[in-house]
Amino acid sequence: MRKASRMKLTNRLVAFVTMIVICAILVIFIGGALSFRKLGQDSLVHYLDGVVTVIDQELADPQGAQALPRWLPTLLQASNVVTLTINDSKKQLFDFKGSQIVPDPNVIYHHQYQLPSHPGYQVTITAIPLYSEFTYSLGAMSSISLAMLIVILGLIRGVHWLRTQLHGSELLEERGRMILAGRVEQYAEGNDYEWPATASLALDQLIGELKDARQERSRFDTFIRTHTFLDQLTGTANRVLFDSRLQSMVQDQDSHGAVVLLRLSDWDEMCAQQGRSIADELLQDISVILSNFIQRFPDTVLARYFDAEFAILIPQQPAKEIKIFTHQLLNAVERLSPPPPMERDNWCHIGVTYFHGGDRRGRIMDEVDTALRSSQLQGANSWNSFNKDHQWDKSRGNVRWRTLIDKTLTQGGPLLYQQPIIMAENEQIMSYALLARIQDDNGDIIKASHFMSAVEQVGYSVRFDRAVITQTLLLLKQQSADNSYAVNITTISLRDKKFVKWLRDELLQLPRPVLNRLLFEVSESMLVKHLDTIRPVLRVLTGLGCKLIVSQAGRTIVSTYYIKDIKADYIKLHRGLVRDIHQRQENQLFVRSMLGACANSDAKVIAVGVETNKEWRVLQQLGVVAAQGRLFAAEIRI
After folding, report:
1. Are 88 and 120 in contact (CB under 8 A)?
2. Quick one: 309 exposed, middle or buried, by C-beta within 10 A (0-12, 13-18, 19+)?
3. 191: alpha, beta or left, given left = phi > 0 and alpha = psi -120 to 50?
4. Least confident of 204-218, 413-427, 568-582, 585-599
5. Residue where a domain stops, chosen among 385, 409, 439
6. What is the rounded distance in angstroms from the CA atom of residue 46 to the CA atom of residue 172?
7. Could you give the angle at which helices 585-597 and 613-622 cross, rounded to 10 degrees?
8. Which phi and psi angles does 420 have, rounded to 5°?
9. I want to staple 40 with a disulfide (CB 3.0 to 4.6 A). Which of 102, 130, 395, 573 is the partner?
C-alpha cells in the first residue's frame, strides 16, 4: 500500500533551491580561494625568479660578489624573503636572514635555484607567501561582499515568492492528508486558493459523488432490510421477522414470555364496502396504539402477521404483567370507531398464550390462535388466554425485584461471567465479553435478559452500570495486558450527567494502554433513539482510547448511518439473526446488508450466539470478523 510523504511540496522545493544556491556559493568560494592561492604563489615564484636572475647577472661582474651585501639585503627585506644563501661548490658566498615573524612555518615557501651563468652556484631561498599575511578588508572585498548580499537577498525573495506561488498546492496537499485521515466530511469542499484548480475541482466532484453513493448505499441497504422484515403499510415487523424472533426465543432454554394475537372481524366485508384506503387508515391507527403500548416492555416485537392480524412477542415477563397489559390494550383499541359493517361491540378479539424455552414455534401459534377463536365465540370485544398445564410464570413484583437488586448492589455488585470472542481468521481470542448475573435468595443464577428490564423499572440502571464498570476496571488492572474486556452500558446511564462525570474521572486515572483494552457495548435500538444526546459522551470515551461496540444490531430495523456518525469499532449482530442462519436466506441477506454498510468504515461485524458449526461456516463465508457463542466456550464466572 502506498504511503503519503510527510514532507510538503513547498518545503521540498525550497530546500532544493536553497541547497543549489548554497552549493553554488560554496563552489565559487572554493574556486576563488584556490585561484587566489595559486595567483599568490605564481606571483612569488615570478618575483623570486627575477631576484635570482639579477643575482646571476651581478656575479658576472668581477666586483659583483663584493657588492651583494650592500644592496641585496634591502631588496630581500622588502620582498618578505626569510633566508637566502648563495653557495658555490667550495664555500658560501652570501647568507641572509630576515627579521620577519613567521606566522606559520608550514606556509613557508622553499626553493633552490641553479644559476644559469654560473653552473656551480646554488641559491636557496625561503620566503613568506603573499596571501599568508592578508586579512579581510572591507574595501578590497566590498565587491564580493555586495555580490553575496545580493545573492542572499535574492534567495530570500525567491523563496518567499515560491512559497506564495505554491500556497495553493500546500492547501490541496493538506486537504489530501485530512481525507486520508478519515475527515472526508469536513474537507468535502476545497478552498478557492487550492492549486492546481482542476485537481481541486475534480476532488470536489469525486467526493460529492462518493457521498451520494454512500447515501444511496445506505438507503438501499435500509430498503432491503425494510422490504425483507417490515410491513410497508404500518412500519411494524412482518411475519418473517416475527417468526424468526419467536423461533430464536424458544430455542433458548432459559427464555419465557407470551405471544399476543389481535384479529379484526369482518375485515374482507369492510374492505369491499369502504375501500382499501379506509381499511389502511384503521390498520395504521391500531398500529400506533400497539406501538405505544409495547414501549413499557424491552425487546418486544410487534408485527402485522396477516392482513387483519397483529402479533406481539413479549419476552421475559410474568403472566400477571401480561394480563394487565392485554386488558389495557383491549380498552385502548375499543376506543376506536370501526367503519361498517364492523360491529362496534364485536370487531376486535385478542388471544394470549405463554411459552418457555423448548416449545415449538408452530405449536405456540396454534395455541394463541385457539385462544383468539375462543374470544371470538364470546360474541363481543374480548380477550382470552390459552390454558397450559406447564404455563410459565415466575411472578416477581417490582418490590421483590427492588429488594433483590438492592441487596446485590449493596453486597458488592452482580456476578461477572466472561465469554471469549473468537476471531474468524485464526480462531484466536480477540477479547472477552463480560456478562452480568445476579443470584436470588434460593441460590439460582439469573441472567441479564431476565432482570435488566426490572433494573430499568425500579430505577437502578445507573447504580447497576456503575457497579459493573467498577468491577471491570479492577479486573483490567489485575489481568494480563493481553486481555481486553467488553462491558454493556445502558443509554440511561450515558444520559445521566453525574454518571458520565464519574466515568470520565475514573477513566482519566488509567493509563492509555489499559483504556485501549476496554470496550463499551451500547444497544443499537437505544443508541439510535438517543443518538443526539449520547453522541458527545461516546466521543469522549473513544477519545480517551476506549473502543465502542454497537450490540443487538438487527433486533430492530433502523438506518445504519450511525456507524459512520459515531465511528463504531465493532457491530454485534443480534443472536436472532445468527440462530439457524444456514437455513434462513432472509437472515443471510440482512447480514450481507450490514456488512455492506460497514464496508466504507472501520467497523467490523461480530456474530453473537453461535452454537453450531454450520452457523459458523456460513458466517465465515459472509465475512464476519469474529464470533461469540457456546460453540467456542461457555460463560465462565470470574
Report:
1. yes
2. middle
3. beta
4. 204-218
5. 385
6. 65
7. 40
8. -70, 150
9. 130
- Give how many domains the chain has, as a whole number: 3
pTM of the complete model: 0.63
Which triple of cell numbers denotes residue 334? 375499543
Residue ranges in 336-460 assigned as alpha helix (H): 361-377, 398-410, 448-457
Q: How is residue 328 written as a grid cell?
A: 389495557
Which residues pair with residue 311 across a beta bridge?
A: 261, 303
Amino acid letter at 83? T
Dist CA 202 CA 208 (whole Å):
10
C-alpha cell at position 555: 433486533
Residue 413 lies in a domain: yes
Please count the other Cβ atoms lying within 10 Å of the Cβ belonging to residue 281: 12
81 vs 83: CA distance, rounded Å = 6
Q: What is the pLDDT of residue 136?
A: 54
Helix (H, G, I), strand (E, B) or coil at 269: helix
Query: What is the grid cell recorded at 248?
Result: 430464536
Nearest to 627 by CA among 483, 424, 419: 424
Domain span including residue 105:
9-127
pLDDT tens for residues 182-227? 677 777 777 777 877 787 888 888 877 777 776 666 666 666 666 6
Tell me the CB-side half-sphere exposure of residue 606, using CA atoms within 13 A.
Answer: 29
Cell of 521: 457495548
Q: Is residue 225 part of a domain?
A: no
CA-based torsion, 336, 342, 345, 346: positive or negative: negative
Name the grid cell of 254: 432459559
Beta-carbon-side half-sphere exposure of residue 233 (alpha carbons within 13 Å)? 20
- CB 102, CB 108: distance < 8 Å: yes
Q: 3-state class of 103 per DSSP?
A: coil
Residue type present at position 586? E
Distance CA 559, CA 70 (A): 115
* Cell numbers that stand for 566 in this block: 459515531
Residue 191 lies in a domain: no
Find the DSSP H helices in 510-637: 512-515, 524-529, 531-544, 562-566, 575-578, 585-597, 613-622
Q: Does 555 lie in the same domain as 607?
A: yes
CA atoms within 13 Å, Cβ hemisphere of 460: 23
